[in-house]
Amino acid sequence: MSDPWRDGVQEAATALAEGRTTSARLVAAAIERIGATEERVHAWAHVDEEGALAAARASDERREAGRARGPLDGIPIGVKDVIDVAGMPTRGGSAVFRDATPAVHDAVAVARLRAAGGVLLGKTVTYEFAFGQGSPPTRNPRDPERYAGGSSIGSGVAVAVGAVPAALGTDTGGSVRNPASINGLVGLKPSAGLVSRIGSMTVSGTMDAIGPIAASVRGAALVLDAISEPAVLRERFGGSVAGAAGRVVAGRVGVDRAQWERWGVTAAVRALVDEALAVLEHEGIEVVEVDASDLDLALTAGLVVSLSEAAALHRLRLRAAAGDYLPETRVMIASGALLRTDDVELALRLRPALRARIEKLLAARGLDALVGPTLPAGAPRLASMAAELTSADDAEGLGSALRMLCAANLTGLPGLSVACGEVEAGPVGMHLLGRAHGDAVILALAERYEQAAPWRARVPLDPR
Amino acid sequence: MTGLDLRDLAVVRDLLGAELAAQDAAAVAAAIDDLRAGLPAFRRDAARLLAEETDR
Q: Which of A42, A93, A361, A408 is the 20 to 30 A CA-CA neighbour of B19?
């Protein structure tokens, strides 16, 4: 029998269902794995060993009595420390909440996860308030000198080292998909409205999303099922996104390679995504060249919307405790306060038009998704990483990373990153931007790739 | 970098207080300059897309 910490969500769920392991064993192995890796990667902000072991024992009792609640019952999961978990403090990676008392209630998504039997092991490290600024302690397990992804940095790294099979993150401009790509994992920003954000700290009230990070597409789909709003699941997915993904039979995707060039994607990353597209074509997925240049507008529009909303949301807290914020976060929020109202209104008016334009492109060409690289390069070196938000001149800068991903947040469409190879600087992700409520379709396409690809990400792995 | 004009500085002071506004002024100026540099092209291209979508 392999080490339990090596199991992904599906493997652990199967082992539980077949009686080959127990939740108590899985949780004990997760705690042991955290003990073995945490000194090097610092992925956790808070671990509730006793609570998790008690929940694991309760799960095992349910299973023993024939009352298991589904595939996630008994599986340990981490939660980004901007999302409330009852009994654990939510510090948001900020000194502002250094003395936070434990949350009284679960966030809605967490409550759904708990109701599905998921064992909430602890809170994973986040960049301060999920803004992506500053230097959290979490380290890239492949190379501690390189960026480990953000802002759901702890969630990505915790899954990458096998501390948990899956974790929740939040994504305002790619913060689930970015650490998934950097760490060789799968990350999904669901369609707007599929997963409730109630109970999580907000960067942008209209662009934030909660989504899963897991080692496999199926693992991410199973977690998504557990955290989704039941009414949307019923109406849009026949009760299960994972189930709906299993029923997808064909596919056709669009690529805009000229855009990859414009966005500064490195030749090595372009080559890996082209190889992944060739795998999809071999699997019967049609790949057609399209002009998606309207997406070039998404970066500025996304920044204008999210920063202006962040300034409004943080105004009162800043007045009370600005000195407790990291200077970099303060600067980012202050820049949002300086945007002109007419620019904010223009960006807000643009959102439905941009979504309509993308949906028309997808419909006119019969496409299920637009496919491209998740990030323009592998993991940047921390010492030389550019932090400017809008600069796309440097493939390793934050601006380039945001440019690739924020269209999904701006339009409410689903976006998914799946590992598709590795360059010298680490894993590379392929990104799929789907139709509204096309979550199951992009999961199906990604799973098709994952099963056919000759390459496998090295996850979980021992940190350097 | 152009620095913050008096109107911008007043907004930042209101948000952060005078002391931190003075401390962060240079960095805020760089960040907002960076954002504003992309706005003329954004206004032009967004207006074009909105006009096209309205005409359809």
A: A93
